[in-house]
Design goal:
The chain has about 325 residues and is of the alpha/beta class. It contains 14 helices and twelve strands. The strands form three sheets. A seven-stranded mixed sheet has the order 1-3-2-4-11-5-12, sandwiched between helices. A three-stranded antiparallel sheet has the order 9-6-10. A two-stranded parallel sheet has the order 7-8. The relative contact order is 0.20.
């Protein structure tokens, strides 16, 4: 289910939503006097799927065509973003969905989830044609990664009633290596590592889309990434939040419908190499879901996480105060 309307593994989902590289800052400074009238907004995103949806907006910002004056930072890990949110250095951030609950429950900093920006990015791949449904995993050996993260929660929820022998590698790159070595013929990986494995041309193919399996199991939308904003910033700048969400939704739609051009922009800002991005984009499930649909999806996901490992959401379910509803758009809340 992909929706182009405005509508994460952090300590838990760096595995699926982040990737490695050097920080890249986009100050987008300009001598244009019109910029003085724009609201200054400090934004951080993660390398990987959570940052990809913002790339076109970064380009518009650099060209002084954005509604606000954005300063973007692209970070390697959720921890780097958490510290900046807690210190007040950031106004908006793209983070794993469960990390939003951890920050709200543990840091004492008031933030709100303003949109879901990434659905599931997990896929089951196999050599051969033996798997077309979850029950086909019975008795099979599977390599994956993300132990102790929300990825493990998703895997346990979907495959817990099977007799699959699931082994967790220390990191997703190791899972790819084991799959390539022939030690396993079935693996569960996130994008962009799915694309990396498929590029080896050794007979692997996608057998199951875990986002679709999640939905087909009656669990609703699988919201792995989200956009959050500091509550005080929202209250002081309601129109800025609205214009940002509008621009972000357009940026996501651009990435999803202009894959080749978007991949070049994504590489320009150090989010992901273009050669990988152009193939990975369709599987990254970039969206911008807001309002009641956002709330319903995230609450459902939090409830599932709470049933497996409550520490992944900061020890308890967050209150509904964590969700942003737009008075300007008439969200009911």
């Amino acid at each position: 289910m992909k929706k182009f309307f405005c509508l994460f593994f952090s300590l838990t989902m760096i595995f699926t939503l982040g990737s490695c590289a050097v920080n890249h800052k986009d100050d987008s400074s300009s001598t244009d006097p019109a910029l003085a009238e724009k609201t200054a907004v400090n934004i951080a995103v993660l390398k990987g799927p959570t940052g990809m949806g913002a790339a076109f907006l970064m380009k518009k910002n650099e060209e002084s065509e954005a509604a606000n004056k954005y300063t973007f930072s692209i970070e390697n890990t959720p921890d780097a973003i958490t510290g900046q949110l807690v210190s007040g250095a950031l106004d908006i951030a793209a983070i794993p969905t469960n990390l939003a609950a951890v920050i709200q429950n543990k840091s004492g900093v008031n933030i709100k989830i303003i949109a879901v920006n990434t659905l599931g990015v997990l896929y089951l791949l196999e050599k051969g044609d033996s798997i077309s449904k979850i029950s086909d995993l019975n008795g099979k050996k599977v390599i994956t990664s993300g132990a102790g993260s929300t990825a493990q929660v998703i895997i346990q929820k979907l495959f817990g009633n099977t007799s699959a022998d699931i082994t967790y590698a220390s990191e997703h790159a190791e899972a790819v290596t084991l799959a390539v070595s022939g030690s396993y013929d079935i693996c569960i990986l996130p994008e962009p590592f799915v694309t990396t494995l498929l590029s080896k041309n050794i007979g692997y193919k996608i057998a199951l889309d875990l986002t679709r399996e999640w939905e087909d199991s009656g669990l609703g939308v699988l919201p792995m990434g989200c956009l959050v904003a500091r509550t005080d910033f929202i209250e002081e700048n309601p129109a800025t939040i609205e214009s940002f969400l509008t621009e972000y939704a357009s940026s996501v739609e651009y990435a999803n419908t202009n894959t080749l051009d978007a991949s070049a922009i994504i590489e320009k800002y150090g989010i992901m190499p273009a050669a990988i991005a152009k193939t990975a984009i369709p599987g990254c499930n970039m969206v911008c879901i807001t309002g009641n649909e956002m709330k319903s999806a995230v609450k459902g996901f939090y409830n599932v996480i709470n049933g497996f490992n409550t520490t992944l959401i900061g020890g308890e379910l967050p209150s509904d105060d964590i969700f942003y509803f737009s008075k300007l758009r008439g969200d009911l809340g």
